[in-house]
Specification:
The chain has 236 residues and is α+β, with helices and mostly antiparallel strands. The chain contains 6 helices and 10 strands, in the order βααβββαβαβββααββ. The strands form 2 sheets. Strands 1-2-3-4-5-7-6 form a 7-stranded mixed β-sheet, sandwiched between helices. A 3-stranded antiparallel β-sheet has the order 8-10-9. The radius of gyration is 18 Å and the shape is globular.
């Protein structure tokens, strides 16, 4: 258990078959019942071969999980494929605990960067990844995973932002007003909009995609995220 983990919480590697199945079930629940995102056999193989596969336990009940795998050896990098916390345990800082554990785990193994993707329309993830963790956006990926059939992404295109988190460096700061050249707003709650008005959500997807890709193709970059203004565009 890390010194940063509160009493009653523990983060530990998934080293038993029972833990692997429990973690797979948790991730399935987080993603709306999708059993294909991280099936137990794949999770078991990743864990057994030395990749990052951990569960977050609250009083011995598994409430979250995170899985990452190593990149090419020369890159000294790890890709965080999936991290989730049960809806009943969200809003309590557990996601930040998992990322801090992932950082410490990676540093002990000589990892310099952790990468992952997230949906650019999900405001809470943009805020967490860019403003809280201070990760750096490296790429906009159009429909990166193709059609997805889970309860979170079904019916939408799977655009993603790729970010890179330098484990030993200070967080990338939010740009100052003088540095910001433009901003791209996003919906406050895209998940609710997708359920209520899927066509309106699709319009928002295209609007944000077109705006961000236009800025990136002009040589600018995404420098941060502000909950009021959205993505902050700065000079490269």
């Amino acid at each position: 258990m890390s010194e940063t983990e509160p009493v009653g919480l523990s983060i530990r590697e998934l080293d038993t078959v029972a833990d692997v199945f429990a973690a797979s079930a948790v991730l399935s629940e987080v993603w709306g019942g999708d059993r294909t995102g991280m099936p137990p056999n794949l999770l078991r193989a990743l864990a057994h071969s030395g990749n990052y596969a951990v569960g977050l336990f609250e009083d011995d009940r598994l409430v979250g999980a995170s899985v990452a795998f190593f990149a090419e050896p020369a890159a000294r990098s790890m890709h965080s494929h999936i991290t989730g916390v049960l809806p009943s345990a969200q809003g309590r800082g557990f996601g930040r605990l998992l990322k801090q554990h992932q950082r410490e785990w990676g540093l002990r193994r000589g990892i310099g960067h952790v990468t992952w993707t997230f949906d650019p329309l999900v405001a809470r993830n943009a805020h967490f990844n860019l403003a809280v963790l201070g990760a750096r956006v490296t790429e906009y990926l159009v429909d990166h995973y193709g059609a997805m059939d889970d309860g979170v992404n079904r019916g939408d295109e799977s655009d993603r932002l790729m970010v890179s988190w330098a484990l030993a460096a200070p967080p990338v700061p939010t740009p100052t007003d003088d540095e910001v050249r433009a901003s791209v707003s996003i919906p406050r709650d895209i998940e609710s909009l997708r359920r209520r008005e899927p066509e309106a959500a699709a319009v928002e997807r295209r609007r944000v995609r077109d705006a961000l890709l236009t800025h990136l193709s002009a040589g600018r970059r995404i420098g941060g995220f502000d909950q009021r203004r959205g993505y902050l565009i700065v000079d490269a």
